[in-house]
From TrEMBL:
It is found in: Mitochondrion matrix, Mitochondrion nucleoid. PANTHER family: UBIQUINOL-CYTOCHROME-C REDUCTASE COMPLEX ASSEMBLY FACTOR 2 (PTHR34260:SF1). It comes from the Eukaryota. GO terms for cellular component: mitochondrial nucleoid. Residues 96-130 are annotated as: Disordered. It comes from Crenichthys baileyi (White River springfish). One of its GO terms (biological process) is mitochondrial respiratory chain complex III assembly. Residues 101-130 have a biased composition (Basic and acidic residues). Keywords: Mitochondrion, Mitochondrion nucleoid, Transit peptide. This is Mitochondrial nucleoid factor 1.
Length: 130
């Protein structure tokens, strides 16, 4: 029976979309990693709680099949903030994350320069001679 569960999870992993803009951070990649760790022995893996495993599969399959999106359609294509789904996708992309990290470094560097006792152009301070 675990062979059937394993094949069902593999099929779900194949169908689950990957978001290439979020390398290593998207739900599809996380799902694939979890299935690989849960079924380390492939079809021969013994499932401790088969009911919980089946329930998890059914939940993931409903999410992948957009069951709730079809059951509860949205009136508008924005969130409560007014940001559209495409704008959210851009904000969460890897390139945007990288530029935000660069900005943080710039802010940190400017704060360090502002609060340091000497400017970075001065170089290392020489010890006073006696």
């Amino acid at each position: 029976m675990s062979a059937t569960r394993y094949r069902r999870f593999l099929k779900l992993c194949e169908e689950w979309p990957r978001d290439e803009t979020k390398k290593g951070r998207d739900l599809g990649t996380f799902l694939r990693q979890r299935v690989a760790s849960a079924f380390r022995e492939g079809e021969n893996t013994q499932i401790a709680d088969p009911e919980k495993c089946d329930q998890m599969y059914e939940s993931l399959a409903r999410i992948n099949g957009n069951v709730y999106r079809q059951r509860f359609p949205r009136v508008r294509d924005t969130s409560f903030t007014g940001v559209t789904a495409e704008e959210c996708r851009v904000l969460l992309s890897g390139s945007m994350q990288q530029s935000m990290d660069e900005e943080k470094k710039g802010l940190w560097k400017s704060l360090m320069e502002r609060f340091s006792s000497k400017s970075p152009e001065d170089g290392p301070e020489k010890a006073p001679e006696k």
